[in-house]
């Protein structure tokens, strides 16, 4: 017969660990002094703390653990903040699957188990140990609170020294009652700092022996702070918990998602983890849900190109291609176009990898290789959904290209992206994918190439007269005494001289002459030459105009646009 469910006194007596007289004396003192019965039994020397713990384990049918004989998983320890562990006399021991095994003096403390489950996202599996063992383990293993507080100090000191980012002491909380716990607060500060800095990405990069936190702002990465080695596992685990990822899997890449609200705005964070030789790296893409309500007029088009692009998206059918390298703003341009086109009378559908922003009244499908939803299979399904306008996140292969062409031939307006250096190369890229030239010329109605240039910071902007060597480097001729602008660098712009970005475009509209060149299989150089002769503003032309208009700088347009 087991001892499960028996009274603890009965178990101790049945095992011969105390006498009936000792139990009566202990119970009497408990009633008068109001102390825990277990404490009285130990203080009077009636029973050893280990025998009492073993009896409690038998009563509750939970494992007994002698912590001094076991290896404690440091990652498990980092899951529970020190103040909570000491308050509840508990030590996390190990993580198995979705379970966190925790040694308690009093494993029946359900509020403690509930709170631990709440902040870790794991099921709490109780174990029993003695108070001496618990105290010794707490003193041996816990350094999280001390180090994480120092990390917060270091972060604010670095902010003060470099004046890079405004991270006020009082922020709008997007977490719950765990918001003041050290590791939780540290992660919240990192994310809130990125939101305040308008960063597009947060990088948590292991660089032995520490971790470097970097923000990508206006396309450029900036070091923000370092995280001490002791708390790296708990910081990574906290991010994984928020993103509903498996904290026990470190060597397998994982992707997750966090939704939060800060300063009255809703944000989505796309989370990606990857094991490197130095440790687990985490990248969070910061997506402002409200930022996609963009008007085409704010993107950076020169007036004639904006008018031309609006004319293309007003067409009832055909294919429009947006080209440029990764991070050049292609998706933003497509979303702005969809916002412009979207109406109650149209069925607008997209296939994306991934869906970065949710658009009102747009039916968005996400590529899911696990479910065998690719661009090609998703596009085939969309065509059976009676669409008016289709947006394809990217044409990556011949199959997708062929279906996109067929869709535009059958009366649909198709928008998509390609990776090419300029607009004329978009049509030759389709040919390289195996699309017949006559189909390209019959379906493509326009191609838009783009780059993103950083804007001059308005807070530290100054005008100056450039020297001849500087203007010659981009083929720019200025009148005598004509000025340009640049940023000196200030706290507002991370001392870079730039704040925000603007697109530089190149719009090639299909014409009879260009169609003839495509059908004849002529090289891209001839297509580019004819497009320019027909009035196409090149990337280089528009980049130089941004310099003359004092929106950006010579240095910046040379960085993002080839001006040879």
What does this structure look like?
The chain has 22 helices and 18 strands. It is elongated. The strands form four sheets. Strands 12-11-13-14-10-15-18 form a seven-stranded mixed sheet, with helices on both faces. It folds into three domains: 134 residues, GMP Synthetase, Chain A, domain 3; 144 residues, Beta-Lactamase (2-Layer Sandwich), CATH 3.30.450; 199 residues, 3-Layer(aba) Sandwich (Rossmann fold), CATH 3.40.50.300. It is an alpha/beta fold and 564 residues long. A hairpin with a 2-residue loop joins β1 and β2. About 7% of the residues have low confidence.
Which terms summarize this structure?
564 residues; GMP Synthetase, Chain A, domain 3; Beta-Lactamase; Rossmann fold; six-stranded antiparallel β-sheet
> Which CATH top level class of the largest domain fits?
Alpha Beta
The end-to-end span amounts to 89 Å
| Structural class assignment | alpha/beta
Low-pLDDT ranges: 144-180
**Count of structural domains:** 3
**Proportion of beta-strand residues:** 15-25%
| Rg value | 32 Å
- The CATH architecture of the largest domain would be 3-Layer(aba) Sandwich
Strand order of the largest sheet: 12-11-13-14-10-15-18
Largest sheet: number of strands, sense, barrel closure: 7 strands, mixed
Average pLDDT over all residues = 86
**Count of helical stretches:** 22
By DSSP, the count of extended strands is 18
User: Which geometry do the CA atoms define?
Assistant: elongated
CATH superfamily of the largest domain: P-loop containing nucleotide triphosphate hydrolases
Helix content: 25-40%
CATH topology title of the largest domain: Rossmann fold
């Amino acid at each position: 017969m087991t001892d499960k469910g028996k009274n603890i006194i009965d178990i101790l007596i049945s095992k011969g660990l105390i006498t009936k007289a000792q139990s009566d004396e202990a119970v009497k003192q408990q009633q008068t002094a109001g102390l825990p019965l277990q404490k009285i039994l130990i203080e009077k020397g009636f029973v050893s703390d280990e025998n009492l713990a073993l009896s409690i384990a038998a009563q509750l049918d939970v494992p007994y653990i002698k912590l001094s004989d076991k290896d404690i998983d440091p990652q498990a320890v980092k899951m529970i903040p020190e103040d909570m562990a000491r308050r509840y006399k508990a030590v996390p021991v190990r993580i198995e699957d979705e379970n966190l095994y925790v040694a308690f003096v009093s494993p029946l403390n359900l509020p403690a188990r509930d709170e631990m489950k709440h902040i870790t996202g794991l099921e709490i599996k109780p174990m029993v140990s003695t108070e001496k063992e618990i105290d010794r383990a707490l003193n041996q293993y816990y350094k999280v609170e001390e180090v994480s507080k120092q990390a917060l100090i270091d972060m604010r000191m670095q902010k003060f020294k470099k004046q890079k980012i405004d991270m006020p002491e009082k922020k709008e909380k997007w977490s719950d009652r765990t918001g003041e716990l050290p590791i939780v607060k540290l992660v919240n500060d990192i994310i809130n700092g990125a939101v305040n800095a308008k960063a597009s990405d947060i990088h948590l990069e292991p660089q032995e022996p520490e971790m470097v936190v970097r923000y990508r702002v206006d396309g450029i990465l900036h070091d923000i702070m370092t995280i001490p080695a002791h708390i790296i596992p708990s910081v990574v685990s906290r991010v994984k918990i928020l993103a509903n990822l498996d904290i026990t899997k470190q060597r397998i890449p994982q992707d997750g998602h966090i939704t939060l609200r800060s300063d009255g705005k809703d944000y989505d964070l796309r989370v990606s983890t990857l094991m490197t030789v130095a440790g687990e790296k985490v990248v969070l893409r910061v997506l402002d849900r409200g930022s996609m309500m963009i008007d085409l007029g704010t993107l950076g088009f020169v007036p004639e190109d904006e008018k031309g692009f609006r004319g293309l998206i007003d067409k009832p059918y055909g294919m429009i291609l947006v080209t440029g390298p990764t991070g050049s703003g292609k998706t933003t341009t497509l979303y702005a176009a969809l916002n412009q086109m979207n109406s109650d009378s149209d069925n607008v559908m997209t296939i994306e990898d991934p869906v970065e922003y949710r658009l009102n009244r747009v039916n968005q499908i996400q590529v899911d290789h696990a479910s065998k939803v690719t661009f090609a299979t998703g596009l085939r399904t969309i065509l059976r959904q009676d669409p008016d306008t289709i947006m394809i996140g990217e044409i990556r292969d011949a199959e997708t290209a062929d279906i996109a062409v067929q869709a535009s031939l059958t009366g649909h307006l198709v928008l998509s992206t390609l990776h090419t250096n300029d607009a004329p190369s978009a049509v030759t890229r389709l040919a390289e994918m195996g699309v017949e030239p006559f189909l390209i010329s019959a379906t493509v109605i326009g191609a838009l190439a783009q780059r993103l240039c950083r804007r001059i910071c308005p807070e530290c902007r100054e005008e100056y007269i450039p020297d001849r060597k500087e203007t010659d480097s981009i083929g720019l001729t200025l009148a005598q005494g004509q000025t340009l602008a640049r940023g000196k660098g200030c706290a507002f712009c991370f001392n870079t001289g730039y704040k925000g970005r603007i697109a530089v475009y190149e719009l090639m509209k299909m014409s009879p002459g260009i169609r003839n060149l495509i059908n004849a299989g002529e090289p891209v150089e001839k297509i580019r030459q004819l497009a320019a002769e027909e009035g196409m503003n090149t990337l280089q032309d528009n980049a130089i105009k941004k310099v003359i208009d004092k929106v950006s700088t010579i240095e910046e347009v040379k960085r993002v646009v080839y001006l040879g």
